[in-house]
């Protein structure tokens, strides 16, 4: 995981924890299966389970790159650029593409689904 985080310069605070910490950040547990979740105020939410390490890595880096893309968009916001999601989504896909093109394709499909229900609002 360290090699991949270094490839996209992911901040340490975005990396998942591996023991129960009530922080709202991602947590990975392993008991023969991989469990990916968030814990906040003692409650687990968005818990997903897999036996596939690639699936776990996708969940992890989809979350990390989404947060990084949000920060990037805020730092590069242009009021004339239209819907802010354009820059955010493009940056997330670029980051994921540096890690695994299949992850970028998978994320693109999810973003396309979101956009089919909630299109860009800038008329482009």
Overall description:
With 124 residues, the protein is an alpha+beta fold. The chain has four helices and three strands. The chain has helices at residues 2-8, 53-75, 84-99, 101-117, and strands at 26-30, 34-40, 43-50. Strands 1-2-3 form a three-stranded antiparallel β-sheet, with helices on one face. The radius of gyration is 16 Å and the shape is globular. It starts with a helix and ends in a 7-residue tail after the last helix. The mean pLDDT is 93.
Question: How would you summarize this macromolecular structure in one to three sentences?
Answer:
The protein is an alpha+beta fold and 124 residues long. The chain is built from four helices and three strands.
Summarize the topology:
Elements: H1 2-8, E1 26-30, E2 34-40, E3 43-50, H2 53-75, H3 84-99, H4 101-117
Antiparallel strand pairs: 1-2, 2-3
Helix pairs in contact: 2-3, 3-4
